[in-house]
Amino acid sequence: MNVYVGENVLQVKRASMEDMNTVLKLLVNAAEWIQTKETTQWDYYLNDLEGSTQEVKDSIQNGSTFLFYKNEQPIATVTLESTPSEWDIDMWEDEVDDPVVYLHRVVVDREYAGNGLGNQILDWSENFVREKGMEKMRFDCLASNERLNAYYQKRYPLKEIKNKYGEHCKYEVKL
User: Fold this and answer.
1) pLDDT of res. 57
2) Could you tell me which CATH number the domain at 2-174 has?
3) Which of the 8 DSSP states describes residue 53?
4) Model pLDDT, residue 51
């Protein structure tokens, strides 16, 4: 699978267990950068990486995590779960039976940020979900992460703000 970003072609591969450390490194690097933006989004990757790896491992084992490569170097990742996690069940409660894919852990290596890659990953994710025959894609982020919410709201309407484990903005994309 390929993604086209301007003149660049990126390869997309389903992550395997051999890629676990690569995915974790992308997540930790993103969490470190996010902390400089005065938000606690993903602070658990910095404060308790060992305790936070099971969900990443499960997603890789489920075949739900993808890596994006430029010149054989991993530069981004995304997870697309068709089965709701405990987190998704808490966030979406009575709506978890819908035919939907849950988007998690969108990460672009900071060296490649600002070139539209995040939007390309979201476009690719929407197409992937659509090709799976699903009707919706859902995701959330901390309401206090104003920059990320502004980014998402350029593309998607805010569905609601839910006060569960702090305030979270919920997004639902109908495909």
Assistant:
1) 96
2) 3.40.630.30
3) H
4) 82
Burial class of residue 129 (count of CB atoms within 10 Å of its CB; 0-12, 13-18, 19+): buried
For residue 146, the 8-state DSSP code is H
- Condensed to tens digits (0 to 9), the pLDDT of residues 115-129 reads 889 999 999 999 999
Provide the residue ranges of all domains of the chain, joining segments of one domain with +: 2-174
| Closest C-alpha to 53, from 28, 35, 76 | 28
- Which residues on adjacent β-strands are paired with residue 4? 9
Give the H/E segment covering residue 108.
Answer: strand 100-108
Q: 60 in the Ramachandran plot: left (φ > 0), alpha (ψ -120 to 50) or beta?
A: alpha
What's the whole-model pTM score? 0.93
Question: What residues contact residue 109 under an 8 Å CB cut-off, 6+ apart?
Answer: 26, 29, 74, 75, 76
Structure tokens at 169: 């903005």
Percent of the chain, pLDDT > 90?
67
